[in-house]
Every structure is written in structure tokens, then in C-alpha cells.
Design goal:
heterodimer, A: 2 domains, 14 helices, B: 10 helices
């Protein structure tokens, strides 16, 4: 009876993992030895500087550690060890630049993100004003309106395209898939040029938030459509079949069974699409154009946007303007992050089942 | 051996105007005539003639790959969901060909329900919502949803286990309970025929027993056709049994069909005898 056993009589749990010492100390010692050896080799190779030394050390470390494992535990363990190291390295290489980028933007932009940044514009800012005067209210409004409109245009179209790609068995679906793939390769500047020549110039509509939204939706559509397609494909076919076996028409099966089952993934698809376009600058140059004052009307007149704001500030020679640009970039990152969090919360809400 | 007709009969999915009210009860008579089914150029079953009398349980047995599942899926037009599928012959429900030009697959499936091998309740719905989901999906109005839910769950033998948690997610039920929920869901639209494609093969023995009890309880209200790998199960629950067999490279054919007792105790065909005594398959 385990319950009545005094605590002292319970056995100590055995260690199932290697201790930190075991896992790190030996390879670390190897690495140090290799590093020193490499520093010597490095004197005769074309590699130079800290990166060259780090690369040499890394390669030497992998080889030496694998050899050490091979010597003590045999080839299988050594291969496993190499695979573990390479995969971990890939993970670190992915995360580190992301952290560096965010940290750099925070360090450069944080002091510019004041209350004024959200409440003031650049209308009355002179060249000698410090970075804490004036702000990007007009750019925040522009970004929200442009990205919102683009999402309104591209999300329904993208989701319907995904439904078409997954649920219809015709030839058209295959053609559509190829075209959507090709569409995701359109350079963003081309999307901007297209809207510029067609909408801004040919139709004499002029620069506007709507023009920017249209250019952005061209870029967002393929992301939403292809991601949503993959997500819908993950819904078990049994659900579709059992709905059809109940006498449900195909459209109701799609609308009531398949799309709800894919719901959180579809939200992710939309968020991915929004993140894809929120930072786009090139298409905005020719569509929203940019402005220093608030224009809340997305249908008419030049508008600013956060990426455009950051781009135009940073190109400036005045340090205070460059600082404002960094602040704009930071606010843009925060905005996308907030959107991401919100979308995940929405997707998690109201889900039934484990 | 009879010649297999060429796979030139494409399945029609046209629209038919007015259909009689779907509210029917009691079993329907099913009849397959010269039923042949293909996937692409590959013929799966050929020339099946079979009567499934109203209000009875008909089981289909046979080794893997003999076309049992394909056959049962042609009985409610699920076969044609695979893009390369083709079929020939007739399936008659109460004397009417369900593949007649202009007949709508959705309406045929409403009358001929299906329970699948893997229990698949709708994950986004609660237990109660799952039961009446068929009514909603097929657009059938229902005045008293609570009563309908209770009646269907009772018939499927699940009511006492879930009556206090109808709002709970369906995914929280055990495999056997999920399968009975799927049966309840199928019964809610009052089908004339209920097809079951190996409904117990993913379940443990006690859940299997509960499903068999359910089959015995509902047999007089709905015609049941059940595909099973388990010969004891066929012997226990069915009134009629069909034995399917496919020779190597040949499509599956019906070897013997008759009352279950006769087929198991005094089979006419030596192959049937070999199979039910476990000498092959």
C-alpha cells in the first residue's frame, strides 16, 4: 500500500536525464580545445575575424564531439549526436535573428514611443524639434484603415478560393491553384504599380487609402488562400462523408461542418495574410503616397502608413526624424503582435472538444 | 464467368424538382441489380444481385479487398464522391432507382443513412447538437428538438449515459459512445435504410455488444445493411447474409446469399464453407 508507506520509505526517483555537467561539460571542454586548435589553423585559412573563428570552432566542435561519441558509444550514437547538434543549431539560427531584430528596433525606437506618438502628427514639427515632439497618429490611422480594408477585400475572396480548391473536383481548381501560386510570387512593387496605373492614373482616382488597400489585397490573397487550403485539407474526410451521408447538400457540409472544424486554422490563415501585408512599403509609395497630417477618409486623398512613415523618416538626415522612424517601426511590430494575440484568443474561444 | 460491362456509365448528379416529404418511418426495401463498381479502370465489384428486405438486417461478409465496402457505398451514392468512381446496374429503394437521371444524391442519402467504421461525431458540436445536426444540415424542420434528441439517443442506447451532459463536447465520449452517437445522429433524419460499414471494428468487445443490442432494437424500424469482418457478429445480428469473394485480379462477386442460419449451417458453396470455417481469408 503506497498510501500508508512513510515518506522516508519511498525510493528516490532515478535520474532519467543526463546532468548538465555530463551534457555540457565534456562537449564544452572539447569545444575549447578545438577552438584553440582552430585559432591556429585559422592563421593559414582565408577565413578571418570573429565570424571565421566561430565557424571554424563550430565545425571543429561538431567533428570532435561526434568522434568522442563514436569512440565511447559507437556509430549510431555519434550520428544521433550530430543530428541533434545540427537540428538545434538550425533552431537557434532561426530564433536568434528574430530576437536581434526585435531587440534592435526596441533599443532604437523605444524612447520615441511616447504618448505624443499616438496623439500628434508631423504637421507642426520643425527640423529642430526633438524626437519627442510630434508623432505618427496619422500613420497609425492610415495603417489600420489600409490593412483593415485590404483584409476585408482579401479574406472572403481567399477563403472562398480555398473552399473552391479543396471542395470542387473540376479542372478549374487545378488551374486556380497554379495561378494562386504564381500570384504569391508577384513582387509587391508590381502590385503597387498595377494599382497606380489602373486606379490612380487611368481612373483618375488619385492617391488614397483604398488604392493602397487594393494593392495590399493582391499580396494578401494568395497567402490566405493557400494557407486556408492546407488547413481545410486537414479536416478529416470522415466528417465530410458523414455529413453528406446525413443528406446534407455539399454547400451546407462545407459551411456548417468543414469550415467550423478548421476554424482556428482559418483565423491563422487570415492573420498570416495580415502580417504579410502590414509591413509592406513599396506598394504604398504609389498608392497611399504618404502624408504628414491626419486623413481619416480612406476613399480619397493621400494617407500615411507606419511602414511608409518609417521609410520616409529614416531617409531623412535629421537625427530626430530618424528616431521617429524607429519609433514607427516599433509601433508597427507591436500592432502586428497585438493582432496576432487577439486572433489566437478569438480562435481559442468557443472551441468544443479536447 | 460473366463479362464485365465497360465503365462508360458516368454518375448523373442532376437536380430533380419536387420530392415527397422526407418524413418516413419503417424500413424500406433495398435491391441491387447487376451492380458493378469501378475506381478508374479498376473494377472492384461486378454483377451483384441482392435483395435486402424491409425491416431486416442483412450482413455482408468476406475477406479484405472483396469489395464489401465499395458495394455498400454504392447503396447510398457515397461511392461517387471519389472523382474516378463509376458504376453500372441499379440500386432500387422501394422499387425506385436511386441512380435514376435527375435523382438527387443528397435526398437519396437522407433516406439511406450510413454509419462509418471510424466514429466521427462533429467535433465543433455538443452531444445534443450532434444528434439533431442531420435535421439542420438537411433542412428538415423539427418542432421539439429536446424530444427528438431524447428519442434518438434512447433508440441508440445512449440516453442514460449522456442525458445529464448533452451540452458537453462530443469528442469527450468514449469510442463506443461516439459510435452510438453517430447511430443516433443517423436515426434522427428517419432513414428508410441504415448502412453500417464495419461499425464495430474500431471498438472493444463490450462496446461492440452495445452496438449489436442497438441493432437488434432498431431492426424493425429501419432496414439495416451491415458490413462486418466478424462472422460471429454477422451470425448474431443478421437475418440474411451475403458472402463476397474476389479472386486474384478479379472483381469481387457475390458467392452466396441467403438466410443467415442456412448460410452458416448448410452453405451451398464450398468456398463459403471454407471461409466460415476459417480455412482462408
Amino acid at each position: 500500500m503506497a498510501a500508508t508507506l512513510p515518506a522516508a520509505a519511498l525510493p528516490q526517483p532515478r535520474k532519467l536525464r543526463r546532468s548538465f555537467r555530463e551534457a555540457v561539460e565534456r562537449p564544452l571542454l572539447t569545444a575549447t580545445a578545438v577552438g584553440v586548435a582552430m585559432a591556429l589553423i585559422f592563421a593559414v585559412t582565408p577565413l578571418s575575424g570573429l565570424p571565421g573563428w566561430a565557424l571554424c570552432t563550430y565545425v571543429g566542435f561538431v567533428v570532435a564531439d561526434a568522434f568522442d561519441c563514436y569512440r565511447t558509444d559507437g556509430p549510431v550514437v555519434a550520428k544521433d549526436r550530430i543530428a541533434t547538434i545540427l537540428v538545434s543549431t538550425a533552431g537557434v539560427c532561426t530564433v536568434v535573428p528574430l530576437i536581434l531584430i526585435v531587440a534592435y528596433v526596441v533599443s532604437k525606437g523605444l524612447h520615441g514611443v511616447t504618448k505624443a506618438f499616438f496623439t500628434e502628427t508631423l504637421e507642426k514639427v520643425g527640423p529642430n524639434d526633438p524626437a519627442t515632439v510630434g508623432g505618427g497618429k496619422h500613420a497609425i490611422i492610415g495603417t489600420i484603415e489600409q490593412v483593415g480594408l485590404a483584409a476585408l477585400l482579401a479574406t472572403p475572396l481567399g477563403l472562398m478560393t480555398a473552399v473552391h480548391l479543396t471542395q470542387s473536383r473540376g479542372r478549374l481548381a487545378q488551374v486556380t491553384r497554379v495561378l494562386v501560386d504564381a500570384m504569391s510570387g508577384i513582387p509587391s512593387i508590381v502590385a503597387g504599380l498595377f494599382i497606380y496605373t489602373m486606379w490612380v492614373v487611368r481612373f483618375h482616382e488619385g492617391f488614397s487609402g483604398l488604392a493602397a488597400a487594393m494593392a495590399l489585397s493582391v499580396l494578401m490573397l494568395p497567402t490566405v488562400a493557400r494557407t486556408a487550403e492546407e488547413v481545410i485539407k486537414l479536416v478529416p474526410n470522415g466528417l465530410r462523408e458523414s455529413s453528406l451521408a446525413l443528406g446534407a447538400p455539399e454547400w451546407k457540409t462545407t459551411l456548417r461542418i468543414i469550415l467550423p472544424a478548421a476554424r482556428s486554422g482559418l483565423v491563422t490563415a487570415t492573420v498570416l495574410g495580415v502580417s504579410r501585408i502590414a509591413g509592406e512599403t513599396a506598394p504604398l509609395l504609389m498608392t497611399a503616397f504618404g502624408s504628414d497630417s491626419v486623413n481619416t477618409n480612406p476613399w480619397h486623398g493621400a494617407q500615411s502608413a507606419l511602414p511608409l512613415f518609417a521609410f520616409q523618416r529614416v531617409r531623412n538626415a535629421i537625427p530626430s526624424q530618424i528616431a521617429r522612424g524607429w519609433a514607427g517601426a516599433l509601433v508597427l511590430i507591436m500592432l502586428v503582435l497585438a493582432l496576432f494575440t487577439l486572433a489566437r484568443a478569438v480562435a481559442a474561444r468557443g472551441r468544443k472538444g479536447p | 464467368m460473366t463479362d464485365i460491362p465497360a465503365a462508360d456509365v458516368r454518375i448523373e448528379t442532376a437536380v430533380l424538382p419536387d420530392e415527397p416529404s422526407p418524413f418516413t418511418s419503417g424500413g424500406g426495401t433495398m435491391r441491387a441489380e447487376g451492380l458493378t463498381a469501378w475506381f478508374g479502370k479498376h473494377c472492384i465489384v461486378a454483377g451483384v444481385d441482392m435483395d435486402m428486405p424491409a425491416g431486416s438486417v442483412t450482413s455482408i461478409i468476406g475477406p479484405s479487398g472483396c469489395g464489401k465496402s465499395t458495394f455498400i457505398r454504392t447503396l447510398n451514392r457515397m461511392h461517387e464522391l471519389v472523382p474516378t468512381a463509376a458504376m453500372a446496374g441499379q440500386v432500387l429503394l422501394d422499387g425506385v432507382d436511386i441512380y435514376a437521371p435527375g435523382s438527387r444524391p443528397a435526398l437519396m442519402r437522407l433516406r439511406i443513412g450510413m454509419v462509418f467504421q471510424k466514429p466521427n461525431p462533429f467535433p465543433t458540436m455538443s452531444i445534443g447538437e450532434n444528434v439533431i445536426s442531420g435535421l439542420k444540415l438537411a433542412g428538415i424542420p423539427c418542432r421539439d428538438k429536446a424530444e427528438m434528441t431524447e428519442r434518438c439517443l434512447t433508440r441508440a442506447g445512449l440516453w442514460s449515459e449522456v442525458k445529464d451532459r448533452l451540452g458537453a463536447p462530443a469528442g469527450a465520449l468514449s469510442g463506443g459512445q461516439q459510435q452510438r452517437l453517430c447511430i443516433a445522429r443517423s436515426l434522427a433524419v428517419s432513414p428508410r435504410v441504415l448502412l453500417m460499414d464495419e461499425p464495430c471494428s474500431a471498438l472493444d468487445p463490450s462496446s461492440t455488444m452495445r452496438i449489436e443490442e442497438t441493432i437488434r432494437d432498431i431492426r424493425h424500424q429501419v432496414t439495416i445493411v451491415i458490413v462486418t469482418h466478424n462472422m460471429q457478429q454477422a451470425a448474431r445480428v443478421s437475418d440474411y447474409t451475403a458472402f463476397f469473394l474476389a479472386d486474384k485480379g478479379d472483381p469481387g462477386r457475390i458467392v452466396e446469399f441467403g438466410p443467415t442460419g442456412e448460410l452458416f449451417n448448410a452453405p451451398n458453396d464450398p468456398r463459403t464453407e471454407d471461409y466460415i470455417h476459417g480455412r482462408f481469408g
